[in-house]
Amino acid sequence: MGIDPGLERLGYAVIEMEKNLYRVHGYGLVSTRQEDSVPLRLKTIYDDVRQLVEKYSPERILMEQLVFARNVTTAMVVSEVRGVVMLLAAQLSLPLEEIAPSQLKRAICGNGRATKSQIQRSVQRFLGLAEVPKPDDVADALALAMIGAMRR
User: Does the annotation mark 131 as catalytic?
Assistant: First the structure.
């Protein structure tokens, strides 16, 4: 299971590899309402991700590492979301692996400085999706899940 953490939108994807072919089980967004308090939004994320884990029974979770240099407020909120996912993984005894954004880009696009649109197009092509996955949170989660499937 790949997870791209965010408070407003958390991207998720579940993929496995069978005979060198990707099999997509599901992907999408966990969304929270801006008018809700941060604790309530974190609980929503916890509950929704837990339901997804129970539904798909992934072997592990791959999550994008936090790399922010500019916006400290955003970094702190994303860190809280990451903590919720880490707690959930620990409670369910699910291995959790973190992937740096540059590693993700290099693995999917062959370039550690690939753009969001390059990731989206590469994921679409590799997975044979009819449309480019949007928003980029979903594309990143799909890319993370692809990396997890490759490493299995």
Answer: no
pLDDT 10s digits, 8-26: 999 999 999 988 889 999 9
Q: What is the rounded radius of gyration, in angstroms, for the C-alpha atoms of the chain?
A: 15
Tokens found for residue 44: 């929503």
Is 48 marked active-site?
no
> What are the Cα distances from residue 47, in Å, to 64, 91, 118, 138?
20, 13, 32, 19
Alpha-carbon distance 147 to 104, whole Å?
A: 8
- Report the C-alpha gap between 78 and 72 in whole angstroms: 10
Is 64 marked active-site?
yes
Q: Is the pTM of this model over 0.90?
A: yes
* Residue keyed to tokens 């072919």: 21
Instruction: Write down the catalytic residue from 16, 59, 64, 136.
Output: 64
